[in-house]
Amino acid sequence: MARKGKEPSLPARFDPLRELGRGATGGVWAAYDRIRGHVVAVKLPGGKSAEDLERFAQEGRLLTGLRHPNIVRGYEFDATPGEAYLSMEAVQGSTLAELIDSEGPFTPERTAQIGAQLASALRTVHDAGWIHRDIDTGNVLIESGDRAKLIDFGVAAPVDTREPDLAPREYTPGYAAPERVPSELGGMAHGGPATDLYSLGVVMHEMATGRPVFPGRPKRRLARQQREVPPRLSQVVPGAPRELSDVVAQLLAREYARRPQSADEVLERLSAVVDRPEPAAASSPRALPREPGGESRDPSRSDAARMDAVPAKEPPDFPGVIGLTQVDGHLVQGGPQAAPTPRGQGQGQEQGPGADRAREAARSVDRTGRVSPVRPPAPGAAPAPGTDHSRGFER
Hints:
The two termini are 33 Å apart. This protein has helices at residues 50-65, 96-103, 108-127, 193-209, 218-227, 233-236, 242-251, 263-275, 299-305, 355-365; strands at residues 2-3, 10-11, 14-23, 26-33, 38-45, 74-78, 85-89, 94-95, 130-131, 140-142, 148-150, 157-158, 170-171, 331-332. The strands form five sheets. The chain has a five-stranded antiparallel beta sheet, with helices on one face. A three-stranded antiparallel beta sheet has the order 8-10-11. A two-stranded antiparallel sheet has the order 1-2.
């Protein structure tokens, strides 16, 4: 039974610590898991209808079935009315949006390294028969050693268009591919693998330049996206390799068919950039000026995703951060569609052939030092109810 409290109402095995984020597809809390013996992140569904719970179960099946070092790990889920939850790893790090805000533009090499990790993660998602459909700088977390984590699968959908699309009609202006944006000529398209790759191109362009590709408020972002061609990285980032500039430009093609059609191709091309000999004197990229009054992103998105200094009884397998995309960062059209045919994924199984190469890609960026494990708490029983855990979450 769920234990009623101030907020939230979690199953009795979880001692809630603090809220991490809230969005249209649910809210996430840090909680001590009495059974696992360490802190986890627990997501609750955003609604109570049968459609809401089936969509929540769909996300749970997907996330608990994927295993990849650059994808947040799902432990278990329950979609029973009144008991629904999704348990995920709780780890340390910052959103990509936070890092860009605090550090400015990344070097071309770092951009390619993180981009390769995300391409590897997307290959595993696509090989499993799914598309993420919400890739942005708020849904990418970076941990120590520059390992990237892809999070928030709340609007993911099957690649097979014959399967019902349960996900809410949401998209993030400025990051969503053109086919995902509703138009007067037609509704929002389902999308495919190249839909995610477009969003990856937007994220990589933002990493390299230090500013959004399409700045401004949501409606202005959409208008600019329809009429403007983003500048090539080679034109605005000193020292950007032509190979990196080419792949990002192709990812940002408006027409679906003109983009790379597989994450595997993108991974191979970015890996070639990462492995190329470094120039004798590489220039640092300059930050492009932000538009007066323009909005780069909603700061609350990164606050919601942040989870620092998490105590754990055992070091997490894949450190990262749990977070949710905020509702204000999206535009919403309509509601859920018909219930889908279940597509269960085997828990703990590797999905697709990309896992080994993904680990190799993750190792290739860990050149500044190994990931520091989280210090475990003193052995003993689980904390008694009411214990103040907040000291483990320093801002």
